[in-house]
Amino acid sequence: MTGHRYSVAKHSLISTTCQHNYWCSSSAWSQPAVFTFVSKTNERVTETPLITRHIIRVSHKNHSSKEQPSPSSAFRVGLISGAFAGAIVDFVLFPLDTLKTRLQVRQGVVWSSQLFHGIYRGLGPAVAASAPAGAAFFGTYDFTKRITSRWLSEPYQVLGHMISAIAGDVAGSTVRVPFEVIKQNLQAGIFSSSRQAVYHIMKRQGIAGLYRGWLSLILREIPFDIIEFPLYEYLKKRWRRDDGAPLETWKSATCGCIAGAVAAALTTPLDVAKTRVMLQGTQDIPYRGIAYTLLRIAKEEGVNCLFSGMIPRVLWIGLGGAIFFGSFETCKQWME
């Protein structure tokens, strides 16, 4: 029986990992055959000159069919991954957040050793909020992104990321605001404990006092996330390997760091206004809304004051973005 040798990877689109040699008995050469390949670009390439009685299909090993998770599954994965990543960031980088708040809370604050006193004051509310707020944001973000990706073509995916970020902001901010109000009052040294802060705020302003600054927080978060998340997704896409495999953790972390730092710098004035609005109840400063607050600060204290705390904010969110997105993607890949 004479053997005839041929290659199944003649086409240039076929990955080298699919280049195997096959042998066929001469007695099998009785009818034309169709060789069907799946290339790196997922295109089907057909070669017909070869003859055999069987159809052989060769698929690239990294292109095995994998079902996309459903929106409900994406929500669950995002929920747990966001909670995990948020808790890590808030615990590790809390001192930078405290410095930022103390620099923003009033005019004329200068760098001194006093700024570092009680640097972890307010950590309890922050940690308590990070898991549920992060879970609410990323669960909603991933859920919305799955839906928009089905309806929007590739050139408009960035719009889907923006819509997803806005939806996540509304959900996450609703959970975070009461904790944020208590945390910032402790960071600024206005109250000495969470219990004292809650008691006095509820006594003076009722439940609405715990939600003071909710709109300001959302109006800060939406521009921030509209900048951060499309930039993060863009950087990931540009850095993704040709074979489509997920990025290594350090690459996801680097993308998150760059995106977070850029967004933090550009939205610092909104963060200053949000801080003033949240803390005005105990300082008797008549701030009414974020636009009025921005104009008032610029007029009374100068435009430079709108960028108070920018350095610790950029460091906090830049490093936080690296830790957060690295942890988030790692947890997400593990769960999926």
TrEMBL record:
Highest taxon of source: Eukaryota
GO CC term, one of those recorded: membrane
Protein name as catalogued: Mitochondrial carrier protein
Matching InterPro entries: MCP_dom_sf, MCP_transmembrane
Chief subcellular location: membrane
Membrane-spanning residues: 74-96
Keywords: Membrane, Repeat, Transmembrane, Transmembrane helix, Transport
Species whose genome carries this gene: Galdieria partita
Solcar repeat locations: 73-147, 159-238, 247-334
Family annotation (Gene3D superfamilies): Mitochondrial carrier domain
Subcellular location: Membrane
Membrane topology: Multi-pass membrane protein
Similarity annotation: Belongs to the mitochondrial carrier (TC 2.A.29) family.
